[in-house]
Write a structure and sequence with these properties.
The protein contains 11 helices and 17 strands. The protein is an alpha/beta fold.
Length: 363
């Protein structure tokens, strides 16, 4: 089975967006036979239908569906030839209406407009049918989607829309407790997915802050624990969780270097850093009125203890997904504490901060 995933486009397609989808597919134990990343499109061949699970979880997809055909360097004659090979009578059996939507990706190969290509394909489908089926642009019983990339045309049946409108409503500024360092909900959700979480596992965020990661994990139905050393942040997290009617959360106050938990399957976290950082180290409170280099030195010391202690509670093969400043040289510290670095992705936040998202595995 071949599926397409229309990626959102605000991040490089072959970075977090595509790898988030792949991680979700792995989490539901589907076999991935082949993947191909185009600009804003991911095509995956699997042994089972995973489109619904991905659509319900992924942060960085607009929609997904089943691929009918893919052609390179397309023109209208080649598209028509492929359409003639398709048994639309079988595809549209028991369907009463249809519509065609075309999305041209930036730098797309064909010069024809989206609207004209929609009409052209729609007419070809009608001509290939043995019975009359109406075009319904508002609520079709089957929706065909075509994507024109730089050198390819991907055509298929749209199955599900993503959750982006719902996720956008959970932006940090909409919450009752706001903190300027609150993690973007799209990134928070993607980080949870990159950990390959499933409902048999337990996730822990030891720097839970205002609760972005906990919110997305709980809304996907996962057993989730969170802690923070700052009591004010914990109270704010509770407000944010309750505002979304999230029940059954497990929160406690703890130093991330001394977790009050025995074993955990996944760690997903965003430690404190940046210009508004407040880090408590025992009795020492460090504010970034000092230089950024001093802050990073303090953060490195914190992370040495964090990785040492949390590698003890993370199960072998468990994932740790952590966001850190891209300028922080941390690879050797990670590798020295029984972790391997599986993936690294840069995420631009603003002029003064680019995050690197690490996907680690405990060995």
């Amino acid at each position: 089975m071949i599926f397409y995933f229309h990626l959102s486009g605000e991040l490089p397609s072959n970075g977090i967006p595509a790898n988030e989808v792949i991680a979700i597919i792995k989490a539901v134990n589907a076999e991935i036979k082949e993947t191909q990343v185009y600009d804003k499109i991911l095509v995956v061949t699997t042994n089972t239908d995973i489109s619904k699970q991905v659509a319900e979880r992924a942060a960085y997809i607009h929609r997904c569906g089943k691929v009918i055909f893919i052609i390179s360097l397309p023109d209208l004659n080649l598209i028509n030839k492929k359409l003639q090979e398709i048994d639309f009578n079988q595809i549209m059996k028991k369907k009463t209406s249809f519509a065609v939507r075309i999305k041209k990706i930036k730098g797309s190969y064909l010069s024809i407009s989206e609207e004209n290509l929609e009409r052209y394909i729609g007419n070809q489908i009608i001509n290939n049918l043995d019975r009359n089926i109406k075009v319904n642009l508002i609520n079709p019983s089957i929706l065909f989607y075509g994507f024109v990339t730089e050198e390819n045309f991907i055509f298929g049946i749209n199955l599900y829309s993503g959750k982006r409108p719902e996720i956008r409503k959970r932006a940090p500024h909409t919450r009752p407790f706001f903190h300027p360092c609150g993690l973007d909900p799209f990134l928070a959700r993607a980080m949870v997915n990159l950990s390959e979480m499933d409902r048999s596992k337990t996730l822990y965020d030891p720097f839970c802050g205002s609760g972005s990661i906990l919110i997305e994990s709980k809304l996907m139905g996962f057993k989730t624990y969170g802690s923070d050393i700052n009591q004010k942040m914990l109270k704010g997290t509770i407000l944010n969780l309750r505002a979304l009617n999230i029940q059954g959360f497990n929160l406690f106050r703890a130093d991330a270097r001394s977790p009050c938990i025995q074993k955990i399957d996944c760690i997903v976290t965003d430690p404190p850093y940046g210009r508004s950082t407040h880090i408590e180290l025992g009795k020492l409170t460090f504010n970034n009125t000092k230089s950024l280099s001093n802050l990073y030195r303090t953060l490195k010391n914190l992370l040495v203890d964090f990785f040492r202690k949390n590698s003890e509670i993370l199960t072998r093969g468990g994932k740790c997904v952590i966001a850190l400043p891209s300028t922080l040289e941390i690879d050797n510290i990670i590798l020295s504490h029984n972790f391997i670095i599986q993936q690294k992705f840069d995420f631009f936040v603003h002029r003064s901060l680019t995050r690197t998202i690490f996907v680690l595995e405990k060995v």
